[in-house]
Design brief:
This protein is an alpha+beta fold. The strands form three sheets. Strands 1-8-3-6 form a four-stranded antiparallel sheet. Helix 3 crosses helix 4, helix 5 packs across helix 8 and helix 5 packs across helix 9. The radius of gyration is 18 Å and the shape is globular.
Length: 250
């Protein structure tokens, strides 16, 4: 793995990134693994290209990553975002190449663990194995909900769902149920996430603002004014969605 896009090593607290795992022995071993494999990444850097050789599992310690795929003509679809505490296995079924391109959406830190190291950790620590399983289940639930709206939903439903999902995930990390949250991306990137043009995203969000559903300020600082209306527009129950996409003890 070529880390030419990375900066210096950084340290983090695994009990903070992986809540519910504060066992002293576990935390110490995981801390050691993170310390040896932690790398800083910068905003807009490329950590990995689709089709690259890949034997690495990424544990996001802070910051945002974007996973995407592109057509030969250059059109890009963002598949998912990885936030603090997420575990990303980008490998294809061959176990050797990456199925996605991974970019830094913000500056941040990842622990880049070789697959053999990761498999040893989850074999030794059932709590970590269970956490990884729950994170994978949450990822599948997010993908299923978004795919339904990509295939069958209106533009408003797609935008509303994306904002609701991100609001829940950001709030989980911050430990806050406040209506204000920030998403570090452009309207073009939101469009690439939900299959709409940036113009369509802009018009839809402005219409939501005029209708008193949300408020926007600066660069994607969002306040959800009417969460019930946003949930109805997204076609999902807020509490149910949170249970599906946020692992217990997160």
């Amino acid at each position: 793995m070529d880390y030419k896009y990375m900066l210096n090593e950084n340290q983090t607290n695994p009990a903070h990134v992986f809540p519910g795992m504060a066992n002293t022995g576990f935390s110490a071993k995981l801390q050691t693994a993170f310390d040896h494999h932690a790398h800083r990444f910068t905003k807009d850097c490329t950590l990995l290209l689709e089709g690259d050789p890949c034997q690495v599992i990424y544990c996001v310690l802070d910051g945002w990553l974007a996973m995407s795929k592109s057509l030969e003509q250059g059109q890009t679809q963002i598949i998912d975002f990885a936030l603090e505490g997420d575990i990303v296995d980008p490998s294809s079924a061959d176990g050797e190449t990456s199925s996605v391109t991974i970019n830094g959406l913000t500056a941040g830190t990842v622990a880049c663990l070789h697959r053999a190291t990761w498999e040893t950790l989850i074999a030794d620590w059932p709590d970590l194995h269970q956490w990884a399983h729950l994170k994978d289940a949450a990822r599948q639930a997010r993908h299923s909900e978004r795919m339904l709206r990509l295939g069958k939903g209106t533009a408003e439903m797609r935008v509303a769902y994306a904002l609701l999902e991100l609001h829940i995930r950001v709030g989980t990390i911050s430990g806050s149920d406040l209506p204000e949250f920030h998403i570090p991306m452009t309207q073009q990137q939101i469009g690439d996430f939900i299959g709409l043009s940036s113009v369509h995203v802009c018009r839809t969000m402005r219409r939501m603002s005029r209708n008193g559903i949300l408020e926007m300020s600066d660069h994607m600082d969002i306040r959800v004014v009417n969460p019930q209306a946003l949930s109805r527009m997204a076609g999902v129950d807020h509490a149910t969605l949170r249970r599906e996409i946020v692992p217990e003890n997160a």
